[in-house]
Design brief:
The complex is a heterodimer of chains A (248) and B (247). Chain A has 248 residues and is α/β, with parallel strands linked by helices. Chain A is 38% helix and 25% strand. Chain B has 247 residues and is an all-alpha fold. Classes of the chains: A alpha/beta (248), B mainly alpha (247).
């Protein structure tokens, strides 16, 4: 569980996050949605320490991230998996090496155990035969799946997904969504997804928070989002022609 | 001036982090060997081609500029050896490698920065600067002196070929010249320079790539800056080291 309390961040005179408070529960896919520039990526970056918040609190299962020293944060990050928007696979490593890398760096597993773990997670993301391929030989969907395999290989307690569907066709996007959803339940991970894809929201959003101009404008689940009376949320949800036509 | 001091400070802080204790020695050792191949062995071909022609040209130019009967022709071999050992092999090769290896390092690390690969390392709790830059610096500092020694032999061999295939100097005079008044300390001086240049030609482009931001265009600019700045600093360092050691 990750508890965020009154989190604020400014860049110069621009307030990007304005007092965000939210709890992300374990075993749930928690989605942060909002328009481009609303502050959702900044929120994720603050949570993992890539950006330092100005004020507020971040508790990882009761452990105060803001008060941690660099060394303690480094230790905590070993419990965090991160799926990047562009997958961020290491160009100079093949699929096997990419997935094994966090195990090499963060664990004391034997070589045999590491290989077994890599085989297990690659099978889980249905890429068993792709272990010798280089990132440049993979499709967008395959890269995402390798990214997921790399993120879950060290058995993280927390999984961050930054725009997991961007650049993917609708069918592959659904496959990735389902994979994230199933893995979250299977390993009881606290998953936090940053997205503006309404398909993902309706497909896997156990808990959804909507950020508008830096503040939390709404919180609910995938059933509630379609019938909310929040104008900002409805404008966002029904922005596309497709959603307008599907509106109940 | 303020900008220069800012970047110098940032560069020193990066180097400080680069030389912090590695997380896993075994991973670094593997990367070190990979980098020795990429930065060293893959540069061997260009080093040999340039060196052989460099030696040949030094020999011809020296011969062309000796028009006094009082200067013995073995001076051609002597001058070729001294020019090669003292200056051409360590410095010119460093400038060539700053172009080849430096642009490669800056663009590789810059691309990793803009495609979030460096963020991925940081999130995993890995010291990204040490993981990416330290093996490159150590590999270059270890392997470049060997490249310089090879360059010295090949360059002097280029002059020997000129002695063999032309009549501007006899082979015996050339061989006598290259053996005349040989000071091993000059080789040591050249290797010290090479090690310092190796550090500069890897760390400066790495700095430029590590702090690249934005798009592919910025990676290109970082690569260009890496080559230009490392070349200038190599020339300044060449002067300082020469002043300190030779005089």
């Amino acid at each position: 569980m990750i508890e965020v309390g009154d989190l604020s961040k400014s860049f110069g005179d621009k307030d990007v996050l304005k007092g965000i408070s939210v709890t992300f529960n374990a075993g749930q896919t928690n989605l942060v949605i909002g328009a481009s520039g609303s502050g959702k990526s900044t929120l994720a970056r603050c949570l993992i320490g890539l950006v330092e918040p100005d004020s507020g609190s971040i508790l990882y299962d009761g452990r105060d991230f803001m008060k941690m020293k660099d060394k303690e944060r480094k230790e905590l990050r070993k419990e965090v998996g991160f799926l990047f928007q562009g997958s961020a696979l290491f160009d100079f490593m093949n699929v096997q090496q990419n997935v094994q890398f966090p195990l090499d760096m963060l664990t004391t597993l034997s070589s045999k155990e590491k290989k077994a773990r890599v085989a297990e997670v690659l099978e889980r993301v249905e890429l068993s035969g792709a272990d010798k391929l280089m990132p440049s030989e993979l499709s967008g969907g395959m890269k995402k799946r390798v990214g997921i395999a790399r993120a879950i290989a060290p058995r993280p307690k927390y999984l961050f997904c930054d725009e997991p569907n961007s650049g993917l066709d609708p069918i592959t996007a659904i496959v990735i969504d389902k994979l994230i959803y199933e893995i979250t339940k299977e390993y009881n991970i606290t998953t936090l997804g940053i997205t503006h894809d309404m398909n993902s929201v309706l497909e896997i959003g156990d808990q959804i928070i909507f950020i508008h101009q830096g503040y939390k404008a709404w919180e609910g689940n995938r059933d509630e989002i379609l019938v909310t009376d929040s104008k900002e949320v409805l404008d966002f949800v029904y922005a596309s022609e497709f959603m307008k036509k599907a509106k109940p | 001036m303020g900008n220069f001091v800012f970047h110098l400070g940032k560069y020193i802080m990066l180097i400080w982090r680069v030389f912090s204790k590695p997380e896993k020695f075994s991973i670094y050792r593997r990367r070190l060997f990979d980098e020795m191949i990429t930065l060293g062995l893959d540069s061997l071909g260009i080093i040999m081609v340039i060196s052989v022609f460099m030696g040949a040209v030094i020999t011809i130019q020296t011969a062309a500029n000796i028009d006094s009967a009082f200067i013995p022709t073995y001076t051609i071999g002597f001058t070729t050896r001294q020019s090669t050992i003292l200056e051409f092999s360590p410095t010119i090769m460093a400038l060539i490698l700053a172009g080849k290896v430096g642009s490669n390092i800056a663009s590789e690390i810059g691309t990793m920065r803009i495609t979030e690969q460096i963020d991925a390392l940081e999130i995993m709790g890995v010291n990204s600067s040490a993981f990416l830059i330290l093996p490159k610096i150590i590999a270059a500092v270890l392997i470049n002196p060997f490249l310089t020694i090879i360059s010295m032999f090949v360059s002097i061999g280029g002059g020997y070929a000129i002695a063999m295939f032309t009549d501007i100097v006899t082979v015996s005079d050339y061989v006598y010249g290259i053996q005349l008044d040989f000071k091993p300390f000059h080789v040591a001086y050249a290797l010290i320079k090479t090690a310092v240049f190796a550090f500069l030609l890897t760390s400066i482009p790495a700095y430029q790539g590590y702090y690249a931001s934005g798009s592919a265009l910025e990676v290109g600019s970082a690569s260009t800056r890496g080559v230009v700045y490392s070349s200038i600093v190599i020339l300044v360092a060449n002067y300082v080291i020469t002043q300190l050691i030779l005089i």
